[in-house]
Amino acid sequence: MMKTLSPKLLLVLSGLLSAAAFAAEDINETMDAAADGTVSISNVAGEVEVQGWSRKQVEITGELGSDVDELIFERDGNEILIKVKVPRHHGRRIASGLIVKVPEASSLEINTVSADIEVDNVTGEQDLESVSGDIETDAHAKDIDVSSVSGDVVIVGDRKPMRSRLNSVSGDIEAESLAGEIEAESVSGDVEIVDGSFTRAAAHSVNGEIVFHAELLDNGRLDVETINGEVDIKFAGDISARFDIETFNGEIRNCFGPESERTSRYAPGRELMFSEGDGSGRVTIQTLNGDIRLCND
User: Is the model's pTM score more than 0.90?
Assistant: First the structure.
């Protein structure tokens, strides 16, 4: 005679089945790749961690959210595509954590919505974008373009010349040990450029502090602008440049000697124009509301 399961046991079994249905899916896939090809990664939510290695392969490990449709992993010539595909009307369980190992000379194109991006030991060009995730990467003499809407951006280089473009709307930007040309812009975050060496540098913020503690090479150009925020400039080594500095509502503190003057008898603004060394470079600093500090090591 068949026994009837108790309601309590049925409830336990139902819970176990539900948990299994909602469980994340483990992934572990590998594909051969070009040594210096392009790897494109798209992930809506979760995190993306990319590590460079010496193999001519791309390896993906991690977990897919239970509501994810599929993981697309395909190769077309020297390009490899990795995409977490989610339903058009998806639930909450789409967060996927990807750990991707790529040939260290690969170029990267990574796009996320609410997923953090972390890159380590990849020497090719990088184009990294996130809507609400933080981005952290290192750079190795190849151009880099990084953008986040509401996340922080952190870049560490090796002081080899390259072109860097860094953008964030409501997050901070930190750039360390970069060289060559840099553009860094944040709407409501701080911008910090330290321990670098540049032929051209531009730092802009609407509501945030700007820090530039780096070397400006001969014939170099530095443009700094903020609406509401202080500016702190400290040049590493000698500096040869013409300076054009202005603040509408703030003080100018200058270690090089010349003192600022009032822009008008009837307004609080101050300005300072002078040359240092042979004046081969150009430094322009403007702020509407904020003090400006100018010095060198």
Answer: no
